[in-house]
Amino acid sequence: MNLHVTSQSSSDITLHILLEQQANGHFWATVPTLPNCSVEQATKKEAIEAIQQLLLERLSTVEVLPVQVSDRANISSTSAPSWKPFLGMFKDDPYFAEIADELWAKRQVENDEEIEID
Fold first, then answer.
1. Measuring CA to CA, which residue among 29, 43, 34 is closest to residue 1?
2. pLDDT at residue 114, rounded to an integer
3. What are phi and psi of 5, to 5 degrees?
4. Which residue in 74, 39, 73, 71 sits closest to 55, CA to CA?
5. Which distant-in-sequence residues (6+ apart) come within 8 Å of 4 by Cβ?
6. CA–CA separation, 100 vs 104, rounded Å?
7. Which residue in 1, 51, 78, 80 could disulfide with 29, CB within 3.0 to 4.6 Å?
8. 35-69: pLDDT as tens digits
9. Which residues pair with 97 in a beta bridge?
10. Sorting pLDDT into bands at 50, 70 and 90, what band is 94?
11. CA–CA separation, 68 vs 82, rounded Å?
12. What is the rounded CA–CA span in Å between residue 30 and residue 12?
């Protein structure tokens, strides 16, 4: 459901609300994009009205500002990833291969134990 809330400026903000009927029959309305912005009311209509009121109160005390994040132009695209110097570091190390094989075997056993179905 889209919810149109008129802000103090001339622009409108469109927010989505989630409206769920609870086991007790009440309706829970929440705005997923805003933390701690939810209400529970006895009827669907009351829940929508309450969430609209809560939104108007919340938005009257905040200012939403666009922030431009600079593009990655300052980061050299030719620079190597920080992990690249370590590639192949252990290629001739027999102990590393042995340890890697042991770790792999241990993970397989752990995964098999988790998947067992009785």
1. 29
2. 56
3. -120, 125
4. 39
5. 12, 13, 14
6. 6
7. 51
8. 889 999 999 999 999 999 999 998 888 887 888 88
9. none
10. confident
11. 26
12. 19
